[in-house]
Amino acid sequence: LRRARALSAPDTSADAVAAEEAFALPGVRPLRGLVPLALTAVLAAVLLGVSQGSVDIPFTTVVRILAWKVLGLGSVAWPEAWGEIVWQIRLPRVLLAGLVGATLAFSGAGYQGVLRNPLADPYLIGVAAGAGLGATIVLVSGVPYAFGSLSLLPPAAFVGAVLAVSISYGLARSGGVVPNVTLILAGVAISAAAASATSFLIIANHEQAVSVISWLLGGFNTATWQKVGIVLPYSLVGAAAILASGRLLNVLQLDDEDAQQLGVPVERVKMMVIVAASLATAAAVSVSGLIGFVGLIVPHSVRLVWGFDYRHLVPMSMAVGAVFLILADLVARTVLSPSEVPVGIITALCGAPFFLWLLRHHRRAAF
Amino acid sequence: MRRFPLLGTLLTLTIALTLALAACGEDEKPAAGPEPTAPAAGFPVTVARSDGRELTISEAPQRIASLSPAATEVLYAVGAGPQVIVTDDYSDYPEEAQDTAKLDAYQPNLEAIVGVEADLIIIAHDVDNIVDALDRVGETVLFLEVPGSIDGVMEQVRLLARVTGHAGEGERLAQEMEERVEAVTDKVADIEEGPLVYHELDNTFYTAAPGSFVGGFYELLKARNIAEGAPTAYPQLTQEEILDRDPEVIILANADAGESPDTVKARPGWGVISAVENDRIHVVDPDILSRPGPRVAEGLEELARLLYPETFP
User: Fold this and answer.
1) How many other CB atoms are found less than 10 A from the CB of residue A43?
2) How remote is the C-alpha of A186 from its chain's centroid?
3) Does residue A125 contact residue A163 with C-beta atoms inside 8 Å?
4) Cα of A337 to nearest chain B Cα, Å
5) Selected residue of B146, B226, B236 to mutate for chain A interface (largest A Cβ count, 10 A)
6) Is B271 at the interface with chain A, CB within 8 A?
7) Which residues contact A293 (CB under 8 A, 6 or more apart)?
C-alpha cells in the first residue's frame, strides 16, 4: 500500500489518510454527509429547470400543475397549453438532461478509473464517433426516419456506438488481456475513421448539413417521456455496475499487475466497467446527440473538490453531471429565446471557465 | 467538438450559405438597359455580378455550366436549355437537367469545371474562392448569389435570359410570374390579418423567420409567422414556444424525412395546438418554396390555397 500513499503524495495529508482508509477499510461509508446535499442540489436544479423556459409561466402555477399531474391535487385552473408545456415538454426535457448528464458523468468516471487516463471520457473509444456516423447515415440517406412518435435515429445511433466500441475493444484484445494504451489507441483510430466518414457524408449531402450538425452538437429540444424511458434502464444498470465497482476502481489506480496481486480480477472489472459505461453512454447519446465536455470535466471537478475515492467520485459525479447539464440546457433554451442554441455549445462555453477556476482554486493534483 | 475538426468549418459554411440566401437580392440589378423586344440580339451584354465586378459577354453562350439549381430552372424555362451542357448535382428540375453531365457545386473541383470547356459558368455559391480561381484561369464566370426575395427572382430571370440570348422569353416569363404573384396578392389585399403559421423545416424545429426567403412568401400572403422576433433567418424554436404561440396552420417542408400530419399529431403535447385540433397541417414541396427559381409563383399559389381555402378554391 505504500504505492497508494505515493500516488496521493501531492495531496494534503488528510487526503492521504482518506485515500488510505479507502483501501484499507472497505466497510466505511464516507458518503453520508454528501448524499442529502447531492439530492437537494439535483431536486433544486429540476425545479428550477421546470419553472423556467422561453414561455413565462408563474412558479406557483408550475408547482400546481406538477401537484395535479403527479399527486392529483388541486384542480385545473391554467391554460391547457401551459399544462402540456410543463408536463409533456419541460419536465421530460429536464429529466432527460439530468439523466444524460448523470450517465455521461458516471461513465466518464468509470472510463477514467479503468483506463487510468485523465483524458479519458465516455466518448474516447468510439461511442461518440460511432453514434454520430449511425445517425448521420440515417439523416442523409433520404429514407424517412420518423414513424408516428417513433424515430429511426436513436436505434441507428445506438447500434453505431456499440459497433464502434466493440471493434475498438476487439482489436485491442490479445491473449485475454486488453492493455489500456492499446485500447485507447484503437478507440482513437476507430473514432477518427468514423468521424471522417461522418464529415464526408455531411459534405456530400449539403441539404441535410444543418440537421446533421445540429444532431451532432446535441440537445434536448425533442425530449419526450419516451426518450426518458429509453435511456433510464441503461443508465440504472450502468450506474449500479459502476457504483458497485467503487472499491475495485480504487485498487485499479495501482497499476494492473499490482491490482492483480491484490486479488482484483483486473480484466473482468475493466470489461464490466467499459461495457456498462459504453452501453449507458450509447443510450444517452442516441437520444441527445454528442454533448461534449460533461463526461470529461465533471469527474475531474468532483475529484478536485471531494478527492480521489471512487466510492465518492461516482455518485457525486452523477449528481454534479445531472445538475450541470440541466442548467446548461436551461441556458440553451432561454438565452436566445424563442430560438435554441445546441446544448453542446453551452456545456463547453460555460463549463470550461468554471473548470479552469476550479483548477486554480483547488491546487490538488487534478488526476 | 474536437473529434469532428471539420464541424466548425461546416457550421460556419452552412450559416454563411444561409445568410447569403437571405441577404442578397438587391445588387443584381442589370447594368445595361433592358431590351425586351430583341431576343438573341443585344450582344455584347454587360451585367453586374454579386461580387460587384462587371462581366461582359460578347455573344450568346453555347456551352453553359450551371452550378445552381435555381439558375438551371430559369435557363430551361427561358428556352436556354439546349445551350446547357453541365449542371450541378442538385439541379433536378426540369427532368432534362438530370440528363446533363454533373458537377459538384458545394465541393467545387476547379479542374473538373475548367475541363468541361464551358463558355459561361453560372455560380451561386462562392465556395473556397472558386469564382476568383476560375477568373484567374480566364473562364467566363457569372457569379449570381441566390436572390433573397421573390422580387429578386424576377430580376434574376430577366438577367439570365439576357446573357443567354433569350431576353424576350425572359421578359415574358418574368411578366407572367409577376402577374401570377399579383393575382394572389390582390386576392389577399383585403385581409387584415392572416392565419398564424409555423413553417417546419426539420423535426428539431428549425423554421423560416420573416425576412428569410421562405418567410417572404408568408409576408406576401399576410400570414403571421410564429418565428417573428427570432434572432436569425432560420432559427431553431423551442417546443414550448411553438405550443405557446399556438399556430393556426402548420406547413411541413420535411416530408422527405417521414414527417406528415399524422406524425405531428402524435407528438406529445401538440394536441393543444389549434392547427392540430383543426386539422390544418399541410405538406409542401420544399424545392418549390426554397429554390428561388421560376416555380416561386406556383409555390405562392399553393401556400395561398393552404392558408385561405375559401378564397383560393
Assistant:
1) 11
2) 22
3) no
4) 8
5) B236
6) yes
7) A344, A347, A348, A351, A352
Which amino acid appears at position A217 of this protein? L
In chain B, what residues touch A211 (CB-CB under 8 Å)? 202, 204, 206, 257
The C-alpha cell that represents A240 in the structure block: 449500479
pTM (two decimals):
0.82
Compute the distance between CA of residue B267 and CA of residue A310 in angstroms, rounded to an integer.
Answer: 41
Q: What are residue B153's DSSP bridge partners?
A: none
Is A213–B231 a contact, with Cβ atoms under 8 angstroms apart?
A: no
- Tell me, letter by letter, the H, E, C secondary structure of B81-134: HHHEEEEECCCCCCHHHHCCEEECCCCCCHHHHHHCCCCEEEECCCHHHHHHHH
Q: Is B3 on the interface with A (CB under 8 A)?
A: yes
The reply to whether B112 touches chain A by the CB within 8 Å rule is no
Q: Out of B227, B238, B272, whose CB is closest to A54?
A: B238
Of A304, A297, A289, A16, nearest to A135 by C-alpha is A289
User: Is B115 within 8 Å of chain A by CB?
Assistant: no
Q: Is the CB of A145 less than 8 angstroms away from the CB of B90? A: no
Angstroms from B157 CA to nearest CA on chain A = 24
Segment (H or E) for A124: none
> Within 13 Å, how many C-alpha atoms sit on residue A241's CB side?
23
> Beta-carbon neighbour count of residue A264 at 10 Å?
20
Q: Which residues of A touch B272 (CB under 8 A)?
A: 80-81, 84
Q: Is A31 exposed, middle or buried (0-12, 13-18, 19+ CB in 10 A)?
A: middle
Residue A159: which residues within 8 A CB-CB, separation 6 or more? A134
Q: How far apart are CA B291 and CA A64, in angstroms?
A: 48
Which of B1, B232, B239 faces A292 most closely, judged by CB atoms? B1
> B11 in contact with A at a CB cutoff of 8 Å?
yes
**A293 neighbors A348 (Cβ within 8 angstroms):** yes
313 residues of chain B, pLDDT tens digit each: 344 555 555 555 565 555 554 444 444 434 444 444 444 567 899 999 999 999 999 999 999 999 999 999 999 999 999 999 999 998 999 999 999 999 988 888 999 999 999 999 999 999 889 999 999 999 999 999 988 888 899 999 999 999 999 999 999 999 999 999 999 999 999 998 999 999 999 888 999 999 899 999 999 999 999 999 888 899 999 999 999 999 999 999 988 888 999 999 999 999 999 999 999 999 999 888 888 999 999 999 999 999 999 998 8
Which cell is A137 given?
447515415
Q: Point out which residues pair with B236 in neighbouring strands.
A: B206
- For residue B153, the one-letter residue type is V
